[in-house]
Amino acid sequence: LVNGTRYPDGAAQVVREAAAVFAGVSPDEVIVGNGSDEILGLIARTVLAPGDRCVYSQYSFSVYELSAQECAAQCVEVPAKDFHVDLDGLLAATDVNTRLIYITNPNNPTGLPLEPAALFNFLERVPEKCVVVLDEAYTDFMDEKLRTDSFAWVKKFPNLLVTRTFSKAYGLAGLRVGYGIAPEHVCSMLHKARAPFNLHVLAQEAALAALEDREHVRRTVENNAEGMRFYEQAFRDMGLEWIPSQGNFVLVKVGQGRKVFQDMLARGVIVRAQDGYGLPEWIRISIGTPAENARCIEVLKEVLPMLKRYARR
Fold it and tell me: What is the chain's Cα-based Rg?
């Protein structure tokens, strides 16, 4: 029974110990956060000073830029290559003033993965004074052959921080809990920067239960794969272009993303317009239950003909 009348363990020690066992590291190499978003912001506030450079790819999570801007850092967005993260481009953009690089694998919102050997080679070439954040929020949905041994990499690279979340495959988005794996000296800095009691009692208990429930994760991943096949077939039937995704979402080209988003929202279905990412013709659809997926396609089929009529006016 969770006791809500008492403050939580400010260090979330039991959660960190459980995450350490899961990751094969020491508890001192674990940092927990109010979702992995908090950790992404903490590392920026810890390592970036005004004028420092923060490097990330085009079409990547908006929190990276926002976190760097809060620190008055110089934001450097590296153009993607055919929607893929350009690792060589990230490295070329890394100079003596670069203190932080953000990488998502698989990427959000494109869903495209990085080749493990190429990513390892990239980490070997990054200067040690520059922290690399490897955001693996969606790693559970990836094909196993594409997954990296990122937790083991932390032992090799003293400038690597790997972030994970319980919001996706574990289904705890409303409880806001995530964690990071990094060398002890990095975690020590982050502990000093984080707010006290940043992980409430319910989040801590849920995280402990989630780490033990591998069957739930298996079923979630299976449902996601089935849903992805459903959407891809629907897009084929509708003649729509999409980007094959290794996440729990898919990016599809609909012509006027903002208009489609608004029209679908009016019918009770939420998708994400991508104009903020420089992709005004695209929307991002999250994979749901079979019934939710079917309803989403039903509504998409309703609004697309309306969009064509709207364009002819």
Answer: 20
> Are the C-beta atoms of residues 307 and 260 closer than 8 Å to each other?
yes
Cα gap 141→249, rounded to integer Å: 10
Confidence of residue 307 (pLDDT cuts 50, 70, 90): low
| pTM, rounded to two decimals | 0.91
Distance CA 300, CA 298 (A): 6
**Long-range contacts formed by 202-205: CB under 8 A, 24+ apart:** 202/2, 202/4, 202/175, 203/34, 203/172, 203/175, 203/176, 203/177, 204/8, 204/9, 204/12, 204/14, 204/15, 204/177, 205/2
The string of DSSP codes covering 231-273 is HHHHHHHHT--EE--SSSEEEEE-S-HHHHHHHHHTTT---EE
Given a contact cutoff of 8 angstroms between Cβ atoms, the answer to whether 33 and 42 are in contact is yes
Half-sphere exposure of 112 (CA within 13 A, CB side): 16
Output the CA angle 241-242-245, nearest 5 degrees.
Answer: 165
pLDDT at 199: 83
**pLDDT class for 9, splitting at 50, 70, 90?**
confident
Residue 8 has pLDDT above 90, yes or no: no
Residue written as tokens 């004074």?
Answer: 129
Hey, is 79 helix, strand or coil? coil
What is the model's pLDDT at position 236?
96
Q: What is the pLDDT of residue 312?
A: 41
Residues 6+ positions from 171 with CB-CB distance below 8 Å: 210, 216, 220
- For residue 171, give the amino acid letter: G
For 230, phi then psi, to 5°, come to -60, -50
